[in-house]
């Protein structure tokens, strides 16, 4: 059983975490390059947020939502 768990540890340490080791080494040379993927995810999140807000405004302007307090069972 111990060999099984050591095999899992070897798989993660020697193979699956190679990209993270490369990022750790890159961070010593360039902080901006090492964090580029984080900036990309932030931009994707911001784009999704603004799209969502635009869609909410569109439905709000069309007055499609039933805003009566008794419209939802959990409010009444």
From TrEMBL:
Keywords recorded for this protein, A-Z: Membrane, Transmembrane, Transmembrane helix
Keyword Transmembrane: yes
UniProt superkingdom: Bacteria
Residues annotated as transmembrane: 31-52
Name this polypeptide is given: Uracil phosphoribosyltransferase
Organism: Salegentibacter flavus
